[in-house]
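hey team, just a heads up i'm posting the complex here instead of the shared drive bc the drive is being weird again. everything in one block, sequence lines first with there labels, then the predicted structure for the whole assembly after. its two chains so it's a bit long, scroll down
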Amino acid sequence: MSVVFEKTQLLTDKPFHYCPGCNHGIIHRLVAESIDELVKEGKLEAGNVIGVAPVGCSVFAYDYFNCDMFEAAHGRAPAVATGIKRAKPNTLVFTYQGDGEKIVTIFVNNAIYGMTGGQMAPTTLVGQKTTTSPYGRKEEWCGAPIKMSEMLAEVPGAYFIQRCAVNNTPNIIKTKAAIKKAMQYQLEGKGFCMIEVLSTCPTNWGLNPVEAMKWLEENMIPYYPLGVKKDKGADAK
Amino acid sequence: MALTLMKGSEAIAEAAIRAGARFFFGYPITPQTEIPEYMSARMPEIGGCFLQAESEVAAINMVYGAAGTGERVITSSSSPGVSLKQEGISYIASAKLPCVILNVMRGGPGLGSIQASQGDYFQATKGGGNGDYHLLTYAPASIQEAIDIMMFAFDKAEKYRVPVLFLADGIIAQMMEPVEMPEMVDFKVDPEKKPWAATGWKPGDDPAKRAVINSLYIETEALSVHNESLQATYREIEKNEVMWENYKTDDAEFVITAFGTVSRVVKSAVDELRAEGVKVGLFRPISVWPFPSDALRETAVRDQVKAVLDVEVNEGQMLERRDQAEDPRNEGGYVNVCRI
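-- predicted structure starts here --
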């Protein structure tokens, strides 16, 4: 019997703690597989990768990614990654979360603060109910949801920005290609890369996994359009 | 060795480089801006890294990142900026990352002034960020002393895996003094000596050696074990690293306590009073955490001592007011602590 599929070595054997239907598991795998493939393709030396975990449900990412890992304070992962990249300039440095260095940020946008039980996030959609917007987010009171990818695409140092989703197989394949492209850009010494991945949070949205995916497609994707927001590499060609 | 006339901020920065610091992350603030300025010119000369962060918060988190790879990392700021760094310092202390942090104190609270002050003593020695942690904290009284301490600060930070804090003040950074600058230390990260550092683990390597630079212990038992190990380190530091100076205290009837640059004014006063026949001496903590409590007790709680005068450029943080209420002859109580 030949092996047709194996779990990537870049993930540990520790079972994910994520809720059923949550997209973190898929996105973790895409990140880990991308690193693995870069190693196998000879573009990255094994062990030459350091990840930075955020605060949020993926705070334990250091237990899952099978490489040297840092756990950063809330919102500080890019700064921590900057410190690491300066000290280890030839290392692939990535942050898993959501400016300013030759690092790769995987920004998981689930329109809510999941870990703390479903509060309003800067990305919460107008009208969306959370525990701190019980009547639905009102734009005149809370402002409009932030479109991180479009915002950061305007930053001169940003090199490659793409918004993806993992709601179906074609999109999962596209997401992985984007993550891998961002990592390759970093290894080539280009600028800051961010892959925003729209993700479900069934538990805090109060939906089952199937309903959550449908909600993402019907509400999130129209407001957060998928696609490449900036690609200096493609522009150069 | 020849003496060179140097400005405090530049001498401290150069000493850090000679002690092996190759990474500086900081943000400008008076009265320490000459430190990042000096580093910005000097670091590239020696293949080091100077990076002006977008804020003090970012700078201290860059320290967290770079220190986690085992490199010698330093940051510098002044009081309001150091307050901003406290979150990161707490994380660094918990993650047991060695590094050096400079606080060139200015007046507070709030934005305060840009004049020298010692108002951050509480913050430096009794916490600052959240949680039960301490920083090995030195209060140099001269530029030379700051240089000398810097030459072993990284070694201490690495030995105990704690951040080392310099509690300096605006005077020391802004004045010029003749100093002796030691030779460059040849520092390279030795992965054998720093098995905790993130230096490139890969699948197939010893799983126990995968670096996880972290301060999160969600299981209470695990956090308890972690805190006990931190506390055990602090007890070791208290045992080994106390530093102080006694100046003419042997026969003193009056003991003046002071730390940092103000102690030099006190020293002059001691000499002048001695010339008038007053038996007075100076007790000066050099490490303010750990505090030389035993040495102070031995100096101050003696029959011959009539009074202890505490001189600080603050409202009396080192010898707090509560000491005054204690029976002057009970254990640990000082005689008639007065403040100037």
